[in-house]
Every structure is written in structure tokens, then in C-alpha cells.
Amino acid sequence: MVAVGSKCRTCKAPAIIDLPRHNAHFCAEHFLELCRRQVVKAIEKFDMLSKDDRVLVAVSGGKDSLAVWDMLIELGYQADGLYLGLGIGDYSDTSAVYARNFATERGLHLIEVSLRGEYGYDVPTAARATKRVPCSACGISKRHLFDSEALKGGYTVLVTGHNLDDEAAVLFGNTLRWDVEYLARQAPVLPARNGFPKKVKPLVRLTEREMAAWCIVRGIDYLVEECPMAVGNKHLAYKAALNEIERQSPGSKAAFYLNFLDNMAPLLTGITAAATDTLQQCNSCGAPTTGDMCAFCRLAEKAGAHEPVPVELVIGKGRKR
Ligand code: Q46
Ligand code: ZN
Ligand code: ZN
Question: Where are the domains of the chain?
């Protein structure tokens, strides 16, 4: 991870990581401090959380969601976890074990919801039944259940582990298409409104690599394996393109995303407001929606009536957003 003989920028002790975008190396202690500082900066700048909030962290068993849960607990927030069993074969079975172990070892409360157990379908079946790509069926399910579980449990904020790489890749895709509505919604904070809970992304100033290092230094076991349905996903191609630019010009990724938030996002706020004015309640579940029935209830109805489809049949057809 770092050249032999490199020294920490802060204390001159042997370094464990180099961070080219900061043009510096850090020892374990000062690396953790830098990460905490970045999270606090994001929380304060975007008014994400207060110590009175009841926080629900969406946990997948991967590095980002476990790291953000760990950081929020360390920083003194009251944060429970929410794990969704998506039914993506062995991947889901294994990810659940990492999420559970993390919570049990630290005495934290983890809410578990199983798509198959509670709603009668899983992501591979939903993809096949609705002829959607798996990530689209998955995204509809996750968004709906994150919202509904947060509201049901009386949580005031929902936290997700989206990091700088994720957000920059989504921004890259939205910009390539000049998709103004998606660009307008790409904020690290979505305030509570029209029956949706407040949603925040405290890791937007930290990269994937930094989150993996956080987990290693803090002794957090996480699922390294990627979701098998991500194969062929455009999001991964955007990440690879941005990584290449970052390699040649360290700091570009952070500048692309963070300067978008500072300079461009404020110009798009009117577009978000207009899009949310036309919401009504879903006939079936009461969630806010633009039609009579929300996308989740339509998907659950179709997928629930379909015979179960094994994950192997839909692998490789993934595409995000
Ligand atoms: S879990 Fe779901 Fe992701 Fe897998 S099916 Fe796609 S969206 S890749 S974060
Ligand atoms: Zn140091
Ligand atoms: Zn509904």
C-alpha cells in the first residue's frame, strides 16, 4: 500500500498508506483522524446529522456501509443498522453474515428484512418477472424498503455508505447524458419531504480505497466480493474511467464531484422542487408516488406471482441506474 521508508505527514512515524490526492502519507492513527475529519466536514457542511437524531444505517456487509456505521458510533451518534436480504444467491447469504457479525461483536442493533421472506420475491426473480435489469429491480426494492423501514422504526435520518467513487461515477454518467433531473437529485442530503425520510451520505468526501483501509486498520471484517449482478454494469465502467484520470491527475475525482456540489448543484434546486410537487399516495402501501400504485408495489405484485428464478440465470445482465 505504501513505499518502504515513507513517513506520516503529521508525526513522521512509518506510514501505512499513501494518499496521492492529498500528496501525503499517513500512519494508522493519523489516517483514521483524516477520515474522521472528512466525515465530520461532510456532516457539518451539509447539515446531515445531529446528536439527537435517531439514525438508521443501510448496511450491506461491504466495506463502505460497515465503515460508516463504525464511524458514526465512534463519533457518538445513535445509529442502528438495516440489512436487506435481496436473495442474490450465496452473495446475499454471505453478506448477511458479515453484517450480523459486525453488529453482534459491537452490541449494535441490526434490523433484518428479507425480500423473499416478507414480500415473496427476490432480486433475480423480480428482474426476470419485470424484464428489468437486476440493478433496476434491486434499486426500486432498496429505495422503498430503506424509506419504509426508517419511517416505521421512527428514525429521523437514513444513512447510506455511498462514497466519493460512487458519487463521482453517478455524476459522470448523468453528465454524459446531461440528465438534468438526475443531476438535480444528486445531493449528499435529501431532506425529509412528502412522506420520505431524510437521507444522507456522510462518506462523500472519502474514496473506496480509503474505506477499505479504514476497515483494515479498525479490524472490521467485510465482504470483499462484489455483487455478481454488477457484471457489465455501466457504473463500473465509469469508475474505471475516473480511476484512470485520477491516476494521471490525482485529485481530479474529488474536484469533479465536490466542485459540482459547490458550483453546479445550487443552480439545479428549482428542478428538484418541481419534480416532487406532483406526488400522491400509493393505493396499496401509502408511499408517495406519481401514479396510483408505487413502483415497488407494482414490482412486488409481478415478482411475487412469478416462480423463483435462480441467480445464475440472470447474472451478467446487471446495469445500475
Ligand atoms: S446489490 Fe443490487 Fe447492487 Fe447487486 S443487484 Fe445491482 S444494485 S450490483 S449496489
Ligand atoms: Zn502519524
Ligand atoms: Zn406502494
Answer: 42-319
Q: Which numbered ligand comes closest to the C-alpha of 138?
A: 1
From first to last of its 321 residues, the chain has per-residue pLDDT tens of 677 789 999 999 999 999 999 999 999 999 999 999 999 999 999 999 999 999 999 999 999 999 999 999 999 999 999 999 999 999 999 999 999 999 999 999 999 999 999 999 999 999 999 998 899 999 999 999 999 999 999 999 999 999 999 999 999 999 999 999 999 989 999 999 877 899 999 999 999 999 999 999 999 999 999 999 988 788 999 999 999 999 999 999 999 999 999 999 999 988 865 555 578 899 999 998 989 999 999 999 999 999 999 888 887 554 444
Give the predicted TM-score (pTM) of the model: 0.94
Atom of ligand 1 nearest to the CA of 318: 6
Q: Ligand 2 centre and the CA of 72: distance in Å? A: 22
Q: Is 307 exposed, middle or buried (0-12, 13-18, 19+ CB in 10 A)?
A: exposed
Residue 245: exposure state from Cβ atoms within 10 A (0-12, 13-18, ≥19) = middle
Q: How far is the CA of 10 from the centre of ligand 2 (A)?
A: 5
* Ligand found nearest the CA of 292: 3
The CATH architecture to which 42-319 belongs is: 3-Layer(aba) Sandwich (3.40)
